[in-house]
Amino acid sequence: MKTGKGARAGQYLALLAYLVFLAFPFLWLISTAFKPARELGSLHPTWIPKDPTLANFRQAFEEQPLLDAALNSLVAAVGAALIAVLIATPMAYVMARHRTRLAKAATGWVVVSQAFPFVLLIIPLFLVLKNLRLINSVPGLIMVYVVWALPFALWMLVGYVRAVPAELEEAAAVDGAGKARTLVSITAPLLAPGIVATALFAFISAWNEFFFALVLLKTPEKQTLPVVLTHFLGAEGVADLGPLAAAAFLATLPSLVVFAIIQKRITGGMLAGAVKS
């Protein structure tokens, strides 16, 4: 019993340390965003600003087009999430229900493709987009984000599809429903938590992505928020910490809000799937 209590206490302590490790950068970012310039240059920084101010936020909006960049990021992230889910859902259904050698090979390729670095992909993607005349455009960036998110989205949804009992689809087939009708009316509603989780992954990946946006978008009014954040760095690499922290804090809010809204749906779907009828 003592060993069990000690092990549990150690687990809670490790979990607490991990939470502190994750929360520290975000809490320090918030603190920096509200500090005036004189506190940012202090040799003895404090967690809580002594004289909190909104000047950093005003300066950030005055120096850079944050709203336009946020709109570009939102369009790219939402578009990539929707398209990736629409493509991955029927593909995942086929791969999960028809376990042929080709399907197994495709699943293996999906896993292996996640190990490819960005540098290997950017040149062929750039050439393809150039031929399609989609360089320096948000639609072209959405296409790249879909290509990048699709393998992992497909891998996630295959697992969710396999968790849906095949007997339900067989019963629908006995009632005269076709494959398309079964997928839309029977399987898709049961896959809702998985589809939401996959869409969330694709959205956050596209919202935070920097490298592809930096290479493919050259016009300032078309750049996304992560690229615009780099404009707060001076010519010598010196960061304007106050406005940079304020803009970075605002850039993290959409991901947090989206996750806070749908996390109950994801958790509820997982618990519902764990109940055996």
Tally of strands: 0
Strand content: under 5%
What is the CA-atom radius of gyration, in angstroms? 23 Å
The N- and C-terminal alpha carbons lie at a distance of: 35 Å
The helical percent reads over 70%
Please tally the helical runs, counting DSSP H or I stretches of 4 or more residues.
13
Offer a concise description of the structure.
It is built from 13 helices and no strands.
List keywords for this structure.
277 residues, mainly alpha, 0% strand, globular
What does this protein look like?
The chain is mainly α and 277 residues long. The chain contains 13 helices and no strands. Helix 7 runs antiparallel to helix 10 (192-208) and helix 10 packs antiparallel against helix 13 (241-274).
Secondary-structure topology with pairs:
Blueprint: H1 2-33, H2 37-40, H3 55-63, H4 66-97, H5 101-113, H6 118-131, H7 138-163, H8 166-174, H9 179-190, H10 192-208, H11 211-216, H12 225-229, H13 241-274
